[in-house]
Structures are given as C-alpha cells and as structure tokens.
Fold each of these.
Amino acid sequence: MSETEHTIRRATPGDETALAALAHSLWPHHTAEELMPDFADILCDADAACFLAGSPGQEIGFAHCQLRHDYVEGTSTSPVGYLEGIYVTDAHRGQGIAALLLNACQSWARARGCREFASDCELHNTDSQHFHLSVGFEEANRIICFRKDI
C-alpha cells in the first residue's frame, strides 16, 4: 500500500460530497443527498471537525468529531471530544487507517483543551466495540434506551 493511501487531511467546505458518500455507507438509512447539508453545516462549525483518508476523489475513510459541552457518560471534564462517526471502506480495513483518523480527531480535540475523548456504539455492533477497545477506549457504561408513542 502506498503512503498516499494513508494520507489523512482535515475536510473543508467542498468535501461534502465525499463525506456524504462515505457516511451513507456507515448510516445507510440516510441517502448521501440527505447527509450533504448536514456535512456542509458541520464543516462550518468551530466545535466540529471531519477528517478524510485517501486522496481527493479517492477517499477511503472519514471521521467526524465534535466538542460536547453537556455531560458525556463516564467523563469528568468539559468539553469532551466526541467521535460521532468513523468509517473505512471494506477493501481498506485492517490497515490502521481508522486509527489514523481517530488520532487526527483526538489531536484536534486536545488542541481545543479537551482532556478526555469519548464515543459510543450500539450494543449489537461488535465490530465497533472491538475497534474501540483496540484503539484504547475503555467501556464506561451500557444502557438500553426506551421510547413510546403518546
């Protein structure tokens, strides 16, 4: 694998299409078209950042992080850097790209005064659980959320 395939860069306005296409693979219940305006807003938000892996036009992964000022489960400081989403294409998994994306997010949060970084995943998503544990996260809590129509 060439070094350029492991290049991580901060996304900027204009990268919405690449971000939305990758995010659609992570969150398939949304179309890429639905996700584009969200990423346009995120890219202009001083409390958020997105990072892309690969080269322009050949992106192979992304990560979205932001600062959370409200309580984050298992943390004791504020703000907390929070990993909102991370995805690497199937063909490029197992090469450390997600860890590089995570490192970029953590560096961004650290530069904004964060001493803690957090994330979450659904209970059934064992791939995500394994990833989080492999890159140094520790489990803070498990919860089940409920809802009903009223």
Amino acid sequence: MPPRNREDAFRYDKMVERALRGVVKQALDEVVKDGLVEDHHFYITFFTEHPGVKLPNYLKERYPGEMTIVLQHQFYDLEVDNDKFTVMLSFNNVPERLTIPLPAITIFADPSVNFALQFQPLTEEDEDDVHFEAEELDIDKDDKQKKKGEVVSLDSFRKKDKDKT
C-alpha cells in the first residue's frame, strides 16, 4: 500500500460525516424493525436534484433544490439499504414512492427529543465514502446518549479549500 500524504491521512471530516450518516441509517433501520415508538418522528430534508433521488416530477417542480418529508403517522413500506432508503408517502391523498440516497440528506431531526444533524453537501469523491455495511453500524444501544437541543454541524471538521493548496 503506497504511503499517504499528510492531506490524505486522518480525514476526520470524512470519518465524522460517515459516522453521522450512519446514525441516520441506523435510526431508519430501527423504524423498519420496530416501528416508531412513543412520540418519535423524523424530519428529513434532502436535495431533490441529487443523483439517485426518485420522486414524481410534480414534487421536483414544487420543491426545486430541497424538500423536507416527515415520517410520523402516515408512511408505508419503509426500506433501507446500504446507501439509500425508500418510503411511501401521501401527497394530497395520492401515494407516492420516494427514493432518497443517504448522501442527499442535508438535515435529519427527531423533534420529540430535540435531536438534529445537519450535513454539508458532499462531493462525488466524498459520496464514495458513505456506503455502509451492516456490521459497521453495530452500535450498542446502552452507549447511546441523548443530548437535548443539540445540532451537530460538520463545518468545524472540514478542511478549508485554501488549506489544500
């Protein structure tokens, strides 16, 4: 294996991005397995023009750029895989299937516990790093900590473009 240069070594920004998107995947996996419990519900904001996003054209036209969906009472057929999720939601009483790649997500929030994650847009190179295998996300439930009212932003972890030159 060739030696890595200083800029490629320990890319903590990518490690954090991967770990936090893993939290989103694991939360969705738990909903598939057990359903939503108590008052938990999710607000998920995503880029509608991101490669791999599938939603009806009228929704893309109505929400150019970004769209927020709510997974609470009326959603169906939630499926999660290593790099995307699909879900059935109703829009004006018309059921629609949406496919959302995990890298397209910009905000994930569970207002019932004042928890939110905010993501920065990924480059195509970064997106290759956001692919999960089931064993990578085996987080012990006893180790989870709830932090009230905290939004985690990755800006402080990212390298600035000027630092790369």
Amino acid sequence: MDTQRLIQLRAQKDKFFKENPNSPLTDAQKVHFTGLSYYVAQPNWDLVVEVTPFAKKDNVQIQHTKGEARWFMRYGEFTFDVRGVQGRLTIYRAANYFFLPFVDANARTETYGAGRYLEPEQLADNRFHVDFNQAYNPYCAYNDRWNCPITPAENRLSVAIPAGEMLPSGEWLD
C-alpha cells in the first residue's frame, strides 16, 4: 500500500476511535484521545509471501484474554527474512477471513505485549499479501472491557517488526 493511502487510513482510524459510538475506547478515554502511535511506514514491510499450506489443517483453540477460547483453522505458514534472520509465522483461518496474530521482539517496550494482528489477503498460487505496516493492536490494548485472542506460541518472533501500530500512549489510557 502506498504511504499516502496508509496515512489516510490511520487518520480515519483515529477519527473512528475519537468519535464513533462503536469505538473500543470508553467515553472518558475519547475526551483525552489524541491519536494512536505508529511506526513510520516502510515499503520493505509490505510483502507478498508464499504460504505453505499445512497438509492437515487442524482446528485449534486460541485462548482469549478473558479465559475463553475460540476455534481457528491452522491454514499454513510462511517464512521471511528480517535483517538476515528468518522469521516464520502461521496464518489461521476463521469463518470469513484469514488471521495473522504475532508478537515481535519489541513487545512490551514498543509494541503491545500480547501481540498485534493482521488480516492477510489471499492471492493466487498460495501467495498472500502481508503488510506489516497495517499491523494493529487488539482492542484489549486500550482497556480491559475487551476479550481478545492471545497470540499462539508458534507466532512469537525473536526479531523486531518495526512496522504498524505501536504501544498506545497518552493520558487517554485507563
């Protein structure tokens, strides 16, 4: 995605958070909300990856922050290079979308500790569009009224992904 389009989407998201009744923020948070924090967009984090589908597509339960679990299908995995280190991530399939939760090495210092999410776009021939610049925090990063999937161990990276949404900051946080 081009940088200008990404900037527009981020501005729309900030407006949604500040003004929309369906925002994940409480009314008290909205009063002080000044915007989300993002890494500067980097074209090298906008990838088309080849996914190796799993021969056996197991349905697995992914735990959520409030103790329940939901079913996802382990669809396939892909590898990618991060400054000479190989990263490996699993893509899951929910009813109507693909889901890519991940935790990177910046978790708890620059990014949300429980991970960030992407919805990769399926292309032809086992390829997916994975744009880490669009990585976003689950709603539970903003306050404790939300119930969010916890990133499975297989999607915890030892390398940093300095792209997408960062830890929320500001006096608007609970």
Amino acid sequence: MQDAILDACVLYPAPLRDFFMRLAVKLYQPKWTDAIHEEWIRNVLKYRPDLTMAQRTRTRELMNRHGGACLVTGYEALIPALSLPDPDDRHVLAAAITANASVIVTFNLSDFPAQTLSAYKTRAVHPDDFAASLYQSEPGQFVELVKLHRQALANPPKEVEEYLATLAQCGLRKTVTLLQHRFGEI
C-alpha cells in the first residue's frame, strides 16, 4: 500500500476529503501534518463562517484516529533546505520526504516541479489522476468503497447521479468517467 501526502487543497472541500478518507480504508495510506490540518481548517472557516472551529477540530481528530499512521511529525528541520516555487509549500515536501511518501496529492502541480521532487523519490499527482490510479489497481475494491461512501451520506442522501456530479464538481472527472461504467454497482 502506497503512502500519499494529501495537500490541504485536497482536504477541503468536505466531499473530496470524505471521498479520499473512504478510499484510504483499503487502497492507500493517507499522510498529513498538523500544518496541513491548520491550512485546510483555516480555509474552511474563511469560506464557511457558518461552521465552527470546534466542528473542524472534531473532524481533524476523527481523521487522525481513523487514518492509521497518518500524522507525519519531525519533518520541520528539512524545510529550510528545500526549494519550491512557493516557499509556503516546503512543509508538504518535507513531510513527504519524512514519510517516504511516493506521491503528494495536490491540485497545485506547478508548485511541486517533477525535477525537484524526483530527487526525493516522490511526485505530485492531481487528485483525479490519483483516484483513477487507485481504481485501475483495484477496480472492484474501489467501486465497493465508493458505494459504501455514497450509502453513508445521510444529510442529505445522494442518488448515484448526484453523487457522481459532486465528485465531478470536485475535479474528479476522469474518475467519474470510470465510475459511470460501473453505475449499477454504486
């Protein structure tokens, strides 16, 4: 099972975070840091003032509890020696190095140049490409986890079409195309 750092942009919005947490049950080991948590929580509270810090703290605690060996620590000393287009992203690369993560799952691919990351035996992957690769490696298990995820949505529940539309809105268009071929199983 591969280790994957989930960048803050993948942990917000909630449907995307929940989707990747559900896949983590069987298909990969998610990794993040307290700094990544702080970043996604800050963005949620900025754009969703109706939510509280207490609610987000609970989500964070549940993620840490159910994410297995998810929390990366001891990476901070690496940050000053790293060079990325956006210096604020160095903590993500430092966490990937410390965790020996093969991928950093992020929408911000230009912030993580392939040439820089290859020196650390990791690479940046778009969330859609990451999800599609998980599907390709274990299609039956992937579809079963997606079905369980959709069925767990109760507030409000989602029919398959609505569920797939939500994933597409979150940027998972390739993954949705793959899942449409398994529509009756979701």
